Amino acid sequence: MPTVPAGVSGAWELPHELVMLRDTVRRFMHTHVTPLEDTLGHDANGLPREQLVELQAKARQIGLWALQTPEEFGGAGLSVLGQVVVGEEAAKCRMGAFFPALGAFGGNPPKVMFRASPEQFEKYARPIVEGTMSKAYTAITEASGGSDPARAIRLKAVRAGSDYVLNGSKMWISHAPGADWGVVYARTGAGRNGISAFIVERDTPGVTFSRIAVMASFAPYELRFDDVRLPADQMIGEEGQGLSLATDFLVHGRVIYAAGPIGIAQTALDMACRWAKDREVFGGKLADKQGIRWMLADSEMQLRAARLLTYQAAWNADLGRNVAVDASVAKLGATEAAYQVLDRCMQIHGALGLSDELPLERWFRDLRVKRLGEGATEVQREVVARALLR
């Protein structure tokens, strides 16, 4: 019978340095994030500017800054698995779905900027890494669809002398009005190789922002481009390279995206366990009821599976492997599991789970959105099915 080597447990474990990182983030959340969040309203969306700057300064002091930015660009160069570990812990707050750690861990420009020209990086991305400029947005999705940008993008960019003129719109764009600039993907030709990426500054004439009311606590925006004239040097890379420059980042982004819902659902499950042990019903504790115990057990099983799927996808990404399918499995597994777990946790809390006394109902709305973001559940299933049947 095979034996486990001395000093090695029978379970898969995170590398020691990532355990230390996880614990550092967990302490930061407990010491700095939770007390601040307790002063905010139930559906608050961000901190006042002065408080955010102070919180970010504390994060930078202990190295929790520009974690996704490669070292050669001045960042921490954290691995994909490391980003997943941080992402799960940073999501364990009321605003964690859209503002992990209340925005404390900044310094990351849109990842396609790592393939921009040196001049573009220094002008636009460097100030974000250094913390002197707010984050930038990325605009891919349109009303015609977001999960298949190669076909869905209709925003046109037409060459006019030394400029490009943009006409059309983008939908469901997060953080747009508060950003100093953004990366906008527009059609310059036919097919997948007919999409280009442009840097668009906030005050560019012809660009307007309209808030879109949705069920989540955080509202996205519609961006309209009416005869927006951009110099050709605002294009990232060559004409038609937009999607090819961003492909790896989009795939890896799904893996990192999966971590947040896991963190939220884990926090909800911890709350449900505490509530079940304290709540008196029908002459005993809620935790004594088999129906409740099985709900908790099923939730634990789903979260363990989702976490390991996400860790595996991140591990393979760090090894340089093609993780298109792994990323879809992780995103699909994590968002669906988290949503189901949260639903059970609300049920265990009864009417209290529906109230704004707890973060559960806010998380429920936010996680519903997460099942659509970064490619809808059905799209991820198609990616996996195509790989199986190929």
TrEMBL record:
Acyl-CoA dehydrogenase/oxidase C-terminal domain boundaries: 240-389
Gene Ontology MF, one: flavin adenine dinucleotide binding
Cellular component, GO annotation: cytoplasm
Domain Acyl-CoA oxidase/dehydrogenase middle: 139-228
Cofactor: FAD
InterPro entries in the record: Acyl-CoA_dehydrogenase (IPR050741), Acyl-CoA_Oxase/DH_mid-dom (IPR006091), Acyl-CoA_Oxase/DH_mid-dom_sf (IPR046373), AcylCo_DH-like_C (IPR036250), AcylCo_DH/oxidase_C (IPR009075), AcylCoA_DH/ox_N (IPR013786), AcylCoA_DH/ox_N_sf (IPR037069), AcylCoA_DH/oxidase_NM_dom_sf (IPR009100)
Gene3D superfamilies for the chain: Acyl-CoA dehydrogenase/oxidase, N-terminal domain, Butyryl-CoA Dehydrogenase, subunit A, domain 2, Butyryl-CoA Dehydrogenase, subunit A, domain 3
UniProt similarity note: Belongs to the acyl-CoA dehydrogenase family.
Any one biological process term the GO annotation gives: fatty acid beta-oxidation using acyl-CoA dehydrogenase
Top-level division of the source organism's lineage: Bacteria
Domain Acyl-CoA dehydrogenase/oxidase N-terminal: 17-131
Protein name: Acyl-CoA dehydrogenase domain-containing protein
Keyword field: FAD, Flavoprotein, Oxidoreductase
